[in-house]
């Protein structure tokens, strides 16, 4: 699935289903179960439909008009700075809720890995990884698959 | 105004945005060669479907993603209630994903499609990562092979990839 057609065309996957919605809504709208089921059903149907690489455009509209597209990554005022909503990139876990942090740290403290796995090949680069993780967790992801421990 | 505007060209807009901010141009992945093709060998109604999403979804009790080229993966229990799912990402508006994670990680949606028989089943394990990784090499050489290994081991017939 994709909502960024130009990026998907450049990456050139074997199959794609394009949903013309704002980013962050690739699989539908919040709490609209019927709509979302139709979108994902149509996306999966492309698996059966396509007999060669291609992109299927799904027939769903975000709103009655396309005005939302005008402001995407554009300056808020003419001549102004582009709207850059990205937040700072930091190496500490970014929890949605404080209670999530407590829940995960309890799992880690008990020696679990809190559902986290790393690509096997990261093991070769564990020194780098450790710099990111050791600052935050003790013990650091003990028991996590794919991570070599001392 | 009716729906007449073309798709948002995120490559062009990123180029404009980076240029205005004084950043060097973003290097998009471009694969010119024809992609590999694997035919679907049975109807969807008989397929076990896997789910991989890049929207930064984690489950309560799991460590959240960080925002600096985090290559780690969360294994999400596809039968767990959606109320236990969380979303964290630095580059898209999380409001709707936090209200209903199905907008970027369609677990309930796929479970419903399995219940109605449109797909055979949803694999018990779904996989989530935080797609704001600025090294396509690390994704290609480490993250993607890891995910591919896992869905093969899960014996899925089809994987739905949901980027944001």
Oligomerization state: heterodimer
Helical fraction of chain A equals 25-40%
Number of domains of chain A: 2
Q: What's the story with the biggest beta sheet of chain B?
A: 5 strands, mixed
- Helix proportion of chain B: 25-40%
Shape of chain A: extended
Which structural class do the helices and strands of chain B define?
Answer: alpha/beta
Structural class by helix and strand composition of chain A: mainly alpha
Estimate nothing, just give the exact number of structural domains of chain B. Answer: 1
Give me the number of helical elements of chain A. 4
Beta strand count of chain B: 7
Largest interface: A-B, 84 and 89 residues
- What is the number of beta strands of chain A? 3
Give a quick account of the main beta sheet of chain A: strands, pairing sense, barrel closure: 2 strands, parallel
The side-by-side strand order for the widest beta sheet of chain A comes to 1-2
SSE order of chain A, one letter for each helix or strand: HEHEHEH
Portion in beta strands of chain B: 15-25%
Bulk shape of chain B: globular
Regions with little confidence, pLDDT below 50 for 5+ residues of chain A: 121-140, 146-150
State Rg of chain A. Answer: 21 Å
Care to describe what's here?
The complex is a heterodimer of chains A (150) and B (164). With 150 residues, chain A is mainly alpha-helical. In chain A, 29% of the residues lie in helices and 7% in strands. Chain A contains 4 helices and 3 strands. Chain A has helices at residues 5-11, 33-49, 98-109, 126-133; strands at 15-18, 54-57, 116-117. In chain A, strand 1, helix 2 (33-49) and strand 2 form a beta-alpha-beta unit. Chain A starts with a helix and ends in a 17-residue tail after the last helix. In chain A, 27% of the residues are buried. Chain B has one domain. In chain B, strands 1, 3, 5, 6 and 7 form a 5-stranded mixed sheet that branches. The longest helix of chain B is centred in the last third of the chain and has 18 residues, at 136-153. Chains A and B meet through helix 1, helix 2, helix 3 and strand 3 of A and helix 1, strand 3, helix 2, helix 3 and helix 4 of B. Strand 3 of chain A pairs antiparallel with strand 3 (73-77) of chain B, so a sheet runs across the interface.
């Amino acid at each position: 699935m994709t909502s960024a057609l130009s990026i998907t065309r450049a990456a050139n996957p074997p199959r794609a289903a394009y949903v013309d919605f704002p980013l962050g809504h690739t699989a539908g709208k919040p709490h609209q179960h019927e709509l979302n089921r139709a979108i994902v059903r149509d996306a999966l149907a492309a698996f059966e439909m396509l007999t060669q690489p291609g992109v299927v455009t799904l027939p769903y509209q975000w709103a009655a008009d396309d005005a939302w597209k005008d402001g995407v990554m554009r300056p808020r005022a003419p001549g102004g700075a582009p709207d850059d909503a990205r937040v700072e990139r930091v190496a500490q876990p970014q929890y949605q809720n404080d209670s999530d942090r407590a829940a995960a740290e309890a799992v880690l403290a008990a020696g679990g890995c809190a559902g986290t796995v790393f690509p096997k090949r990261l093991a070769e680069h564990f020194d780098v990884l450790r710099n990111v993780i050791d600052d935050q967790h003790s013990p650091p992801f003990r028991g996590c698959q794919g991570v070599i421990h001392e | 105004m009716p729906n007449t505007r073309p798709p948002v060209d995120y490559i062009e807009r990123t180029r404009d945005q980076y240029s205005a901010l004084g950043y060097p141009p973003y290097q998009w992945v471009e694969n010119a060669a024809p992609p590999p093709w694997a035919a679907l060998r049975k109807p969807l109604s008989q397929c076990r479907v896997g789910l991989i999403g890049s929207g930064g979804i984690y489950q309560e009790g799991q460590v959240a993603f960080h925002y600096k080229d985090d290559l780690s993966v969360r294994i999400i229990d596809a039968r767990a209630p959606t109320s236990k799912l969380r979303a964290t990402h630095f580059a898209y508006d999380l409001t709707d994903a936090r209200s209903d994670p199905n907008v970027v990680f369609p677990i309930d949606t796929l479970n419903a499609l399995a219940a109605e028989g449109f797909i055979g089943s949803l694999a018990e394990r779904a996989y989530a990562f935080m797609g704001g990784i600025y090294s396509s090499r690390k994704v290609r050489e480490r993250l993607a092979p890891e995910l591919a290994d896992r869905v093969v081991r899960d014996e899925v017939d089809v994987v739905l990839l949901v980027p944001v």
